[in-house]
Design brief:
With 203 residues, the protein is of the alpha+beta class. The chain has 3 helices and 8 strands; from the N terminus they run ααββββαββββ. The chain has helices spanning 2-11, 42-65, 123-130; strands at 72-84, 88-98, 101-110, 116-122, 144-149, 151-159, 164-172, 188-200. A 4-stranded antiparallel β-sheet has the order 1-8-3-6, with no helix packed on it. Strands 2-7-4-5 form a 4-stranded antiparallel β-sheet. The longest helix has 24 residues, at 42-65.
Amino acid sequence: MKDNADDYKHFQGKDVCPRCSRPYYYMPPPKEKKKGYFGLPIWGWAIIVIIIVIIALSIYAVVSLLPIFDPYEETRDFAFDVTIENGGHYRYTLEEYFYEEADIELEVTSELGMRFDVYIMDSDQYNGAYGWDNTSLQSFSSSHAWENVIKVSDSVSIHGIGGESLYLVIDNRDTPITQNDAVPEGLLTVHVEGSIEMFYDWD
């Protein structure tokens, strides 16, 4: 037994045993597991990288959208002909959602020299004057009015109608509440043209 022990110590780590000429095998010690970088495993770093990418993309999206919220202006031209029956009216939408200010250039001309009325109204004013539920016409108001005319050529500015639609109304009816309005003379045909310059401020 002692000889065997001595042989083990003497030949430990060599390739061949001198007694039996067989390879000498031994179990290598287990390898230590890698701890990753700075003490974190690779999957931990992968999660951190994904979070950083998501934050960076979110910041980029916010920064790229900032110009949308800056004040800006928009100009739109319009021109059309319209025929209105006796006792009727025509509504043209100048702006669907008006925010800060609008400068309007307007020219309306009767083709046969017949008299008519022109109004600029927000949606509340229009519903009060022409709404289906307002059969008695108990109230009438407008932002601007041109009554009993054969031609309108004017420029107006409107301020502070946030969230309200803005309408151009051409009227060919006689109502008791608007005493200076035109008395219809029959079928009315007018030519309309102009422009609206809108200023938006999101503050």
